[in-house]
Amino acid sequence: MTTLSPGPLPQRRAVLARQVRLLVAATITYNVIEAVVAIVAGTIASSGALVAFGLDSVIEVASGAAVAWQFSARTPELVERREQRALRIIAISFFTLAAYVTFDSVRTLLGTGEAEHSSAGLVLAALSLAVMPFLSHSQRRVGRELGSASAVADSKQTLLCTYLSGVLLIGLAVNSLFGWSWADPIAALVIAAVAVKEGREAWRGDACCAVPTPAASTAGAAATDTGDACASCSPGCACCSCTSTGPPPGPAVRGG
User: Fold this and answer.
1) Rounded Cα distance, 246 and 236, in Å
2) CA-CA distance, 148 to 58, in Å (whole number)?
3) What gap in Å lies between CA 193 and CA 173, rounded to an integer?
4) 107 near 48, Cβ under 8 Å?
5) How many CB atoms lie within 10 A of CB 206?
């Protein structure tokens, strides 16, 4: 039998929306600092990877600003109406990141420029590797409970920044120790492919599925089983609170 946990009550929804705004503000603040440090350090060390990492932080700021704009709305209805536009901005951020990382990786593989050792870059990459997973997990958890596709998509953008931090840290360390400058761009190309995939999902709105509110569930109770609402979740969707031991019956019904 399929069961569905109802969406958050209005009071809880207000608390979650406030948490999203705080998490986004923290992410934007960190990324602004990260961008400045990475671009300056990358310019000094002639490190394309560091500069690219800084530009990724700028893209992160744009993605976070889209979510902040969405949740600055004063009513839940307006927040929902802004969701699709915020998702499109996040998707474009993913595509932009993938395009730049691909360009920079190919440029590096072709031997354009040779990066020097950067202590500031190593420290920044290690710090981001510690901070970003926490911010991503927190925002994803709140976004899922809230049923917000844009908040979950932005958390994936932050998680991608974590992967880039790891790639940057390994690339800088390997380059400093062994002079293997090819390791970083190869790994970065893999991340670029992941960014394209996440961008497509955000563009389609697959990052999350709507969890019916108690009012919507009550209104539709006479017409459909709660399992039908779970059928609206796309394959692999991890946002809705549906647990199933079998395929849900009947046509899909989207929650409010």
Assistant:
1) 15
2) 23
3) 23
4) yes
5) 20
- Which residues are within 8 A (CB) of 38 and not within 5 positions of it... i.e. 6 or more apart? 50, 51, 53, 54, 57, 121, 124
Collapse the DSSP code of 242 into the 3-class scheme (helix H, G, I; strand E, B; otherwise coil) and give the result. Answer: strand
Q: Locate all alpha helices (DSSP H) within 71-148, ordered by sequence.
A: 76-109, 119-146
For Cα atoms 105, 106, 110, give the angle at the middle one, nearest 5 degrees: 115
Q: How far apart are CA 122 and CA 134, in angstroms?
A: 20
d(CA 183, CA 49): 11
Burial label for 74, CB within 10 Å (0-12, 13-18, 19+), is exposed
Q: What DSSP state is assigned to residue 243?
A: E
Rounded to whole angstroms, the Cα distance separating 13 from 193 reads 34
Looking at the chain, how many residues does it have? 256
How does residue 204 score in pLDDT terms, banded at 50, 70 and 90?
Answer: confident
| pLDDT tens figures, 27-55 | 899 999 999 998 898 888 877 778 778 88
* CB neighbour list of residue 15: distance below 8 Å, 6 or more residues apart: none
CA distance 168 to 174: 10
Please name the helix (run of DSSP H) or strand (run of DSSP E) that holds residue 233, with its range, or none: none
Over its C-alpha atoms, the chain yields an Rg (Å, rounded) of: 20
pTM over 0.85: no
Residue-wise pLDDT for 216-252, tens only, equals 444 444 444 434 444 444 444 444 444 333 444 444 4
- Give, for 3, the enclosing helix (H) or strand (E): strand 3-4
Which residues are within 8 A (CB) of 222 and not within 5 positions of it... i.e. 6 or more apart?
Answer: none
The pLDDT tens digits of the residues spanning 149-159 come to 888 888 887 88
